[in-house]
């Protein structure tokens, strides 16, 4: 499948207009692989024919299908295990103290893809039932892809998907065989919600989230849109909440609304001007007896 510069530009423009993500030169190699299955399903023989249909606007649903096919939806359970260990060892114990009065936590997984990150979070709580007894744990997963959100909501995965990141004991405990794959048990699905949401839009919940995970999503935004996304995320966080980014991501040079937690590398907190994080963390430590 030959991909001309003009076709690449049209597809890149469509992706950025719908999602804010850039189809950079380093990602354009994926176009053929990403679109080949969709073109077969729709009976479209060539990329030129696909582009013509998109430009003429004859099939609006096709545009969304193309966008969703071009998105990078790579994910798996407990991806890069260290971030989940950080949450379990550091953030969740502190939040358990701070929220002991309300016994409620709100967590947002932004760019959740097909939901493995969200179910991983649910497992963190489900595996410590005594500690979280009586708590309301509200975990929201959002993604710009409608098809990914639908799959995440169902919680059903193939044998290959359910084995990525899960040990055999976790797989058997938290998933049950369903058809030709596995589905998360009802108790794991209960605290979870999913919805379609674009990070460049206002946050999906009026109340502040205690933890926001936005890992390996902002990599595909240009600097201007990345700054806007950070503003949206910051607006959705509780004053003493945390943001977790991917290992190769940072807020440095992108926003002054968030700064690194000096005692937990990989977590970020609201700062207002980027200079109050360390001071406020010290105050929080004294307040909780740390």
Automatic annotation (TrEMBL):
Pfam families: CheR (PF01739)
Membrane-spanning segments: none
SMART domains (UniProt xref): MeTrc
EC number: 2.1.1.80
InterPro entries, per database record: Bact_Chemotaxis_MeTrfase, CheR_C, CheR_MeTrfase, CheR_N_sf, SAM-dependent_MTases_sf
Record PROSITE patterns: CHER (PS50123)
SUPFAM superfamilies: Chemotaxis receptor methyltransferase CheR, N-terminal domain (SSF47757), S-adenosyl-L-methionine-dependent methyltransferases (SSF53335)
Keywords assigned by UniProt, alphabetized: Methyltransferase, S-adenosyl-L-methionine, Transferase
Superkingdom of origin organism: Bacteria
UniProt domain CheR-type methyltransferase: residue ranges: 1-273
The keyword Transferase appears for this protein: yes
Enzyme class: transferase
Catalytic activity annotation: L-glutamyl-[protein] + S-adenosyl-L-methionine = [protein]-L-glutamate 5-O-methyl ester + S-adenosyl-L-homocysteine
Name of the protein in question: protein-glutamate O-methyltransferase
Species in which this protein is naturally found: Sphingomonas limnosediminicola
């Amino acid at each position: 499948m030959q991909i001309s510069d003009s076709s690449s530009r049209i597809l890149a423009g469509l992706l950025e207009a719908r999602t804010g993500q850039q189809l950079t030169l380093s990602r354009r190699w994926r176009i053929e692989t990403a679109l080949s299955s969709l073109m077969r399903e729709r009976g479209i023989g060539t990329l030129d024919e696909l582009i013509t249909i998109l430009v003429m606007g004859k099939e609006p649903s096709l545009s969304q299908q193309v966008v969703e096919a071009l998105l990078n939806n790579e994910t798996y359970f407990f991806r890069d295990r260290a971030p989940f260990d950080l949450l379990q060892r550091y953030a969740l114990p502190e939040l358990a103290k701070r929220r002991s009065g309300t016994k409620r936590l709100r967590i947002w997984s932004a760019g959740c893809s097909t939901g493995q990150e969200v179910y991983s979070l649910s497992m963190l709580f489900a595996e410590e039932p005594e500690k979280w007894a009586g708590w309301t744990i509200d975990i929201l997963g959002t993604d710009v892809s409608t098809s990914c959100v639908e799959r995440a909501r169902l919680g059903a995965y193939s044998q290959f998907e359910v084995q990525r990141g899960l040990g055999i004991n976790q797989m058997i405990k938290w998933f049950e065989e369903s058809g030709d794959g596995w589905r998360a048990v009802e108790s794991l699905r209960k605290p979870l919600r999913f919805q379609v949401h674009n990070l460049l839009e206002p946050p999906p919940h009026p109340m502040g989230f205690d933890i926001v995970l936005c890992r390996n999503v902002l990599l595909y935004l240009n600097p201007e849109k990345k700054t806007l996304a950070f503003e949206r995320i910051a607006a959705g966080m509780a004053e003493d909440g945390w943001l977790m980014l991917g290992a190769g991501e940072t807020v440095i040079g992108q926003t002054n609304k968030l700064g690194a937690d000096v005692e937990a590398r990989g977590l970020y907190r609201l700062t207002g001007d980027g200079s109050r994080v360390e001071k406020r963390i010290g105050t929080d430590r004294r307040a909780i007896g740390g």
